Amino acid sequence: MTDKEMWYETLHAGFGQYFSVDKVLYREQTGHQDLVIFENSVLGRVMALDGVVQTTERDEFIYHEMMTHVPLLAHGAPKDVLIIGGGDGAMLREVNRHQNIEKITMVEIDAGVVTFCKQYLPNHSQSAYDDPRFTLVIDDGVNFVSQTSEKFDVIISDCTDPIGPGESLFTSDFYQGCHRCLNPNGIFVAQNGVCFLQQDEAVNSHRKLGHYFADVSFYQAAVPTYYGGIMTFAWASDNPELRQPDAATIASRFAAAGLTCRYYNPAIHTGSFALPQYLLNALAD
Ligand code: SAM
User: Fold this and answer.
1) If both were cysteines, with which of 40, 57, 110, 265 could 44 make a disulfide (CB 3.0 to 4.6 Å apart)?
2) Is any ligand 1 atom within 6 A of the Cβ of residue 53?
3) Is 88 a pocket residue for ligand 1 (Cβ < 6 Å)?
4) How many domains is the chain partitioned into structurally?
5) Which of 9, 12, 92, 108, when mutated, tests ligand 1's pocket best, judged by the most ligand atoms within 8 Å of its CB?
6) Active-site residue flag, 153
7) What's the pLDDT tens digit per position in 178-189?
């Protein structure tokens, strides 16, 4: 990849998106994946891992607000939060905004992503890594959730797609481990791909999660650079009421948290659990 060329994403064969590379800021073959961060005139700084867009400065807020404020406000009183992946630091930035949380742990397999994103994507993490409640663990997420004795109220799997190191975060072992280290009334959420193009991933996650959790579904948001339609977020807990809180409760918790967001609001929260019929049909098969 060099300056002034076009870069074509490799996630899907036969249908994709491209970016003009105005300037390559950093590239490294870390011990786990091929990491590149480059400037694009429309999206700002873009980070890709193994040829797949992970995040861009312009639209990251949609994904990170939805992956944090939905489960945290649905739970109502989270104290211990676990982030799996999330090396760019934006998920941590949004979790930190909830003052009632006492402990935040992030398990990231690739220390290089944390290091290089702190330097080249400073707007993602901002000062999030300095939060005194925060602990960084460098490990494979599936190892951590299978072995830790810690318990969490919300687990957020901010992982890559199920290729390369991310593959282990879509396995039954990982889901079983997450269920094991959740407190009662705990909530698990995970990025689960664009269901129009990655429907099998949603169906497989739904089936596997259903072996361990009593209530499994998805919620959704359209994130422009996760192209192809709505991105689905897997949702799993043992208490179905957590997925369908009344709007007034979410609104009062949102107000009490004192959050100002650019995508998330209480109406988006409750509306995001409405799913397209083609996905509901696939999950019912
Ligand atoms: N928002 C992005 C998306 O939806 O594609 C994910 C962004 S974040 C950069 C993905 C992170 O997951 C990366 O930092 C990657 O190193 C990390 N990761 C991949 N596999 C992992 C694993 N098995 N355990 C822990 N972290 C992992």
Assistant:
1) 57
2) no
3) yes
4) 2
5) 108
6) no
7) 999 999 999 999
